[in-house]
Fold this protein.
Amino acid sequence: MSRGRGNSPPHEPKEIESSPVQAEDEATIGMARTKAFVDNYLPALLGQAWYLVSTQFHAIVEQHGLSVLEWRVLSTLASDGAMTISALAQTTVSKQPTVTRLLTRLEAQRYVERSTSLDDRRYTLVRVTPTGRRLVGGLVALAEKHEREILAPFEAKKIEALKEVLRELIDRHSPRN
């Protein structure tokens, strides 16, 4: 039985040789497709925007002696009122065990307090204390100023449309829905 040219069986595909220029063109086309994909892929865009918009403010939070998660937890409680630990974890985009450990530290510092829900005793509610509210009060004002500066180049209609779409995405993809 003849095996064709060389030692490879006739049914195996032979590698097609390409010139260095052709290989480079194919690589460039592949990279261009990848770049176009990443440039238009919603999770990538959201991640980039989040990082660029929040990095400066996170530095301010840390200068005030809080971690970013402490800030998220305290500012959420200050604005939303008492909530369950699971709702707090979801709102702050954190894992529940991480939030529970953080709450233990914040409670020891008297920034938050926990109580059993009167509606359903299986749930623990967390609320910010006056001390915790004072701690984040100034940071909330700085966060609002930071947001105004970032959004200043945009029309009010565009800002509201952006926030509306983001809220709808969150509502549609929240685990509770």
Q: What stands out?
A: Residues 1-9 have pLDDT under 50 and may be disordered. Strands lie at 83-84, 112-116, 124-128.
